[in-house]
Design goal:
This is MerR family DNA-binding transcriptional regulator. The protein contains five helices and three strands, in the order βααββααα. By secondary structure, the chain is mainly α. It has two domains: 57 residues, Multidrug-efflux Transporter Regulator, Chain: A, Domain 2; 55 residues. A three-stranded antiparallel β-sheet has the order 1-3-2. α4 packs antiparallel against α5.
Length: 127
């Protein structure tokens, strides 16, 4: 069975060992212990990857923990519906953010062109 040290995971994911211990304290990952040393399994590494991806997508740690809990349980229809609702809600938020980002990018582009035009006019007056 492949295992990992906390320092290896921290380096691979470019995060601090403190962050990894925090995720452990939150119950998101569960390394084995050998004395004071933490030994992480492939499952922990996969969960760490999902935690970081979830955070980038705007999921809170509580939401990530809930998704992990739903996934770990026997997946009854109710649990799967609950998981789908969480996913649908997050998808809707991300789509709204994407629309907002597109609008702001368009406004920035327009502002850039106005600034360039103003500079061209200003420079032509001085020549």
């Amino acid at each position: 069975m492949e295992t990992f040290k906390i320092s290896e995971l921290a380096k691979e994911f470019d995060i601090t060992t403190r962050s990894i211990r925090f995720y452990e304290d939150m119950g998101l990952i569960e390394p084995q212990r050998k004395g004071n040393m933490r030994i992480y399994a492939r499952r922990d590494k996969t969960r760490l990857k999902l935690i970081l991806r979830g955070k980038r997508l705007g999921f809170s740690l509580a939401e990530i923990k809930e998704l992990f809990a739903l996934y770990d349980m026997d997946q009854s229809d109710n649990q799967l519906f609950k998981m789908l609702n969480i996913i649908d809600e997050k998808e809707a938020v991300l789509k709204r953010q994407l629309e907002d980002i597109s609008i702001v990018l368009g406004e920035l582009s327009t502002a850039r062109e106005r600034c360039k035009e103003a500079l061209r006019l200003s420079q032509s007056k001085h020549t």
